[in-house]
Amino acid sequence: MEQQKRIIGFDLARAYAIFGMYIVNFNIVFGNYHDTSLAAQFLALFSGNSSTVFVMLAGMGVALMTNRLNYTDEERKKLKNTINQRAWFLFFLGLLLYTWWPADILHFYGGYMHLAALMLFLDKKYYLFAATGAVIIFHILLLIIPYETGWNFATLEYNDFWTFNGFMRNTFYNGWNSIFPWLAYFMVGMYLGRLNWALWHTQKRMFGLGFGLFLAVFILQTLSNILPINADWKFYINADYLPPFLPFVLNTIGFGLMLIATFMYLSKFLAGNRWAIDLAKTGQMTLTHYISHLTIGMIVFAVFTGKPYTAKMNDTDAVSPLIILIFAIIYFIASYYFSKLWAQKYPNGPFEMLMRKIAG
């Protein structure tokens, strides 16, 4: 029963991440990044936090999948092989999707999972070492390669992605969710997946740590906008998503810890509720809903608003943030009912089934 409660909390957190990604991605293509209205500021709250939570939960899922203590050597080998096969599946699926959606995260997942497979059965403290190392390596690369290399930030296009140098640079350093430093989120998630979330102490400690990180960065950012400091330092402290500097990483990890701890706590009250179980099924189909909203969702929204889908930022012909929010809510409700109906016949979502069929 306790295991069921924890899994429901995990899946409800994934459902939140799906909803947040709907808002963020619809806003990137159809919204105005520079809009300062109240509705636009509300949408901006999901920027960064949704994707980072998404990656943390992915790492947590890998850890939960391999969380037994007494695996045989043959079982460990089989699990590593399954994870590597799924990593290749996501990598190539993501590259295919990239031709339609240049901000794809799936091919980066392939990189995270390959590295995770190497560390799968190590003590959980090494996951935190790896997370720290990923952030440090990213900051070392900043001293070597200008972050804007390859980017057209006016349209959020990456100019040389399909060249060898551009692909490697984008994948490991300055892509949307590059391995350095984004591997840190995946490894923190793996650490979380090794914790005993049935304990109130774990829930309280993780929420407190997350709140401390989030508050510390918030205070630092507030002070940076009040005190007369160097413009470069001010940019470093307040940068959002691109580039993912240390303050951004700490802030979003803090938010993720609070969110996950909250859902794990609430799960003991929600485990028996029908609507919570159905909503958890939405979280179980993250891959399906991720691909769906970037294809079907984008096309439907483009037709509904009369705006062409270009996968480029277009501030001059933007849709109202309120319309984006309403559409994201409606599309999420549709996702919820699709998941509920699909789960009555199949144990996994369509793309989850495809992944298991091809990659185990």
Give a structural overview.
It is a single chain. The protein has 15 helices and two strands. It is an all-alpha fold and 360 residues long. Helix 1 runs antiparallel to helix 3 and helix 12 crosses helix 14. The N terminus is likely disordered.
Radius of gyration: 20 Å
Average pLDDT metric:
92
Tell me, what's the shape? globular
- Strand element count: 2
Tell me the distance between the termini.
Answer: 27 Å
Percent of residues in helices: over 70%
Separate helix tally? 15
Strand order of the largest sheet: 1-2
What is the helix/strand order?
A: HHHHHHEEHHHHHHHHH
Q: Which quaternary structure do these chains form?
A: single chain
Q: Characterize the largest beta sheet: strand count, sense, and whether it forms a barrel.
A: 2 strands, antiparallel
Give the percentage of residues in beta strands.
under 5%
How many domains comprise the coordinates?
Answer: 1
- Backbone structural class: mainly alpha
- Low-confidence parts: 1-5
In short:
This protein is mostly helical.
Q: Helices and strands in order, then pairings?
A:
Blueprint: H1 2-30, H2 38-44, H3 49-65, H4 73-98, H5 106-118, H6 125-144, E1 151-152, E2 157-158, H7 164-174, H8 179-193, H9 200-224, H10 231-238, H11 246-270, H12 274-284, H13 286-305, H14 321-343, H15 350-359
Antiparallel strand pairs: 1-2
Helix pairs in contact: 1-3, 1-11, 1-12, 1-13, 1-14, 3-5, 3-8, 3-11, 4-5, 4-15, 5-8, 6-8, 9-10, 9-11, 12-14
